[in-house]
């Protein structure tokens, strides 16, 4: 009997024909609860929409309101294999170095003189190319300066399509990461790149050549105004050619940016403004 009573109580809880209650509530009670939650969630959605709308009014489509970054930009090299910073190949085995030359070809294609002449302007060198807005009137899109591939001379791939890899005198390309509004160099002194071997390999690196001369990033390519404001921006590059590096041995190399207003590193990131990689050229058949 107890089980029958419990079963009867559950049936009445689900639907009570005497009081016409479903799950303990009448139709009007359920209607009021549903109406409350509909109104409540409409209010929350409206509040969220209003908050987002107000926030978006404070943003600039072409420039971030806040930038959380280090004072020193990072550096990267090309070519590089996958995520490693190692360039290892054998002069006599074309398949060991053709991936490097193909990577450089692909990377430098947008810098072809013909493409740069179509998209960008011949700027006045050795001075920052400032394009300020006029009050609330945005000076967009902003112009960009030409960086012609031929500036890299022996490392341009134009005269030597193998970039020196087949002769044991390889080229690497260095670029600084883009930072909106950064003005590297002051008083007309352009930032420049220097490369050297780590302490234990100091006698292995040999002679280096830099392109452009002195490995400098001309001031006219700065400041950078952002991807949307400066759609055709071409990052300046520096090429380094290793003329007589020791072969059949690992040579650990570090390149860094030098500027009179860019710190060379910080406690937060000791590798800011520099890049390290290994270079090994094998000559054994």
From TrEMBL:
Main location: membrane
Location(s) in or outside the cell: Cell membrane; Membrane
GO biological process, one term: intracellular potassium ion homeostasis
Segments traversing the membrane: 30-56
Keyword Ion transport attributed: yes
Gene3D superfamilies, per the entry: 1.20.5.170, Na, k-atpase alpha subunit
Record keywords: Cell membrane, Disulfide bond, Glycoprotein, Ion transport, Membrane, Potassium, Potassium transport, Signal-anchor, Sodium, Sodium transport, Sodium/potassium transport, Transmembrane, Transmembrane helix, Transport
PROSITE patterns: ATPASE_NA_K_BETA_1, ATPASE_NA_K_BETA_2
Topology in the lipid bilayer: Single-pass type II membrane protein
Top-rank taxon, per record: Eukaryota
Entries under Pfam families matching the protein: Na_K-ATPase
GO molecular function, one term: ATPase activator activity
Cellular-component GO terms for this entry: sodium:potassium-exchanging ATPase complex
InterPro entries found in the cross-reference section: Na/K_ATPase_sub_beta, Na/K_ATPase_sub_beta_sf
Keyword Iron-sulfur included in the entry's annotation: no
PANTHER family found in the cross-reference section: SODIUM/POTASSIUM-DEPENDENT ATPASE BETA SUBUNIT, SODIUM_POTASSIUM-TRANSPORTING ATPASE SUBUNIT BETA-2
Function according to Swiss-Prot or TrEMBL: This is the non-catalytic component of the active enzyme, which catalyzes the hydrolysis of ATP coupled with the exchange of Na(+) and K(+) ions across the plasma membrane.
Family in the record: Belongs to the X(+)/potassium ATPases subunit beta family.
UniProt protein name: Sodium/potassium-transporting ATPase subunit beta
Record organism: Seriola lalandi dorsalis
């Amino acid at each position: 009997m107890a089980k029958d009573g419990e079963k009867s109580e559950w049936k009445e809880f689900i639907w009570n024909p005497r009081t016409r209650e479903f799950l303990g509530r009448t139709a009007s009670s359920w209607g009021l609860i549903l109406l409350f939650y509909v109104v409540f969630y409409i209010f929350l959605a409206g509040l969220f929409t209003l908050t987002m709308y107000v926030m978006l009014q404070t943003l600039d489509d072409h420039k971030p309101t806040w930038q959380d970054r280090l004072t020193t930009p990072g550096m990267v090299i090309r070519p590089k294999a996958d995520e490693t910073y190692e360039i290892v190949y054998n002069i006599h085995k074309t398949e060991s170095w053709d991936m490097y030359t193909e990577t450089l070809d692909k990377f430098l294609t947008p810098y072809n003189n013909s493409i740069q002449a179509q998209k960008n302007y011949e700027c006045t060198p050795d001075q920052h190319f400032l394009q300020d807005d006029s009050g609330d009137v945005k000076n967009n899109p902003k112009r960009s300066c030409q960086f012609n591939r031929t500036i890299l001379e022996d490392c341009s791939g134009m005269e030597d399509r193998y970039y020196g890899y087949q002769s044991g005198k390889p080229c690497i390309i260095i670029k600084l990461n883009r930072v909106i509004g950064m003005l590297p160099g002051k008083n007309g002194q352009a930032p420049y790149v220097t490369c050297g071997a780590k302490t234990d390999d100091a006698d292995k690196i040999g002679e280096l050549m830099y392109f452009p001369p002195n490995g400098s990033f001309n001031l006219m390519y700065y400041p950078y105004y952002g991807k949307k404001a400066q759609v055709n921006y071409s990052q300046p590059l520096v090429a380094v050619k290793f003329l007589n590096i020791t072969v059949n041995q690992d040579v650990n190399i570090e390149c860094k940016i030098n500027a009179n207003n860019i710190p060379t590193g910080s406690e937060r990131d000791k590798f800011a403004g520099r890049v390290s990689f290994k270079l090994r050229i094998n000559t054994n058949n």
